[in-house]
Amino acid sequence: MNKIGYKTSFGECICGDSLELIKTLEDKSVNLALTSPPFALQRQKAYGNETQDVYVDWLCQFAGLMFEKLSDDGSLVMDIGGAYEKGIPAYSLYQFRVLIKLCDEYGYKLAQPFYWHNPSALPAPIEWVNKRKVRAKTSVNTIWWLCKNPMSCKANITNVLVPYSKRMQQLIANPDEFFKEKNTLRPSGHVLTKASWQKDNGGAIPPNMLQFTNTESNSHYLKYCKENNVQGHPARFPLTLPDFFIKFLTDEHDLVVDFFGGSNTTGQAAEKLRRRWKTFEISREYVATSVFRFTETLQEARDYYNSIMNGNLVEIYSKNRDLFDWAANS
Question: What is the domain extent for residue 175?
Fold first, then answer.
């Protein structure tokens, strides 16, 4: 059967059932599986989502297949949004049941939980927040960072340092103003030394609470969706999210896979960071619109979209020949 989708210098986005496409990957070939699956919401969405009573088993079958495909130092990162139980203001535990099942039955280890705070999130769920006003709005997604072996999984926090605060910059520049004694004992019991603050490490270690605003409105992707009179994917995460984890958990040449491709934000981030990538998405429409992330003109976007919708595999390669040769030989 012919592939439907597109290929770039670094990767490919393929239309099909991820349960079958994951099986085509070589064992231990994937350095990072990074995805945001449809959430177990009470209302059905246009992109398709399973109900909470079957969701845990449904999602775990995909993640379970990925276990053998991950390299020994590889990771699985899943962004899972919260939801409430049907008809009552009780928070669902489905994302925690997913975590426990993957660890207890499939062999994953929880390297660390992350939490993505979207300060621009709309008040939801409507019934309990807007109407009855008995709950705060949900603006934090759970992100499970899982691995095979927590002692050997690849990770480098220095790749994702955040800017120092103004006060920290002042402390590094002149620690004598802040340390009147050689050592300072904090209430927590930590002993701070003047020498420990004299080195500029290029930035601060980020917390596991990530704050990325998701307010995309005039991006290249949405612009071409509008110009081609097609609907963009309604549940996109911001480019900054996959960018963070790809930098944190992979090196150049590594392979990144997203088995719920959606609008292919993961592929765009991986391409920018010179990682090889594969994304799988069951909706041909979403695959076709995601090609807009890799096009340079409206006519090019329209031609590629129509070709994919007609069942073809489009090839898009960088106009930088050196970049193409590097990717082809990696």
Answer: 163-203
